[in-house]
Amino acid sequence: MDVFVSIKPKARKIIISDVKTRVHSSLPGVRNTRATEIQLSLYRHLLSSLIDGSVDISRLFTMLKLDPDASFSDGFLAEAGETFAQTGVISFDDLMKNNTLNVSKSLDAL
After folding, report:
1. Are residues 43 and 74 in the same domain?
2. What is the C-alpha to C-alpha distance for residues 40 and 81, in angstroms, rounded to an integer?
3. N or C: which end of the chain has fewer CB within 10 A?
4. Are 70 and 99 in the same domain?
């Protein structure tokens, strides 16, 4: 199941996507989508907080022991590149140009 949440800060469009693997090809019932809705709401809240500056991204990286300049794995790039290119979210070339968690560098490159 794919779920997309869109917000438009300033002139940029941001899409938050969550992909769930399902055994059945039908969409899940309301009861089974509640957890995904909550998860995406948390993502959106975190993203909004990062954008407005109420959450310091460098502190978040430190707390989670993440290297913001580490490159994404080849497997992630292949899967994300295919999915994002098919939906028009980002081209594979742009994904390769923004191949880290470092948001400030990624935004400068766009």
Report:
1. no
2. 21
3. C
4. yes
Residues 2 and 21 in one domain: yes
CA distance 26 to 108: 40
Dihedral, 96, 97, 98, 104 alpha carbons, nearest 10: 180
CB atoms within 10 A of CB 3: 14
What residues make up the domain containing 9? 1-55
Beta strands in 1-110 (DSSP E): 2-7, 14-19
What pTM does this model have?
A: 0.51
With beta carbons less than 8 A apart as the criterion, state whether 81 and 92 touch.
yes
Q: Please state the domain count of the chain.
A: 2
CB of 34 closer than 8 Å to CB of 20: no
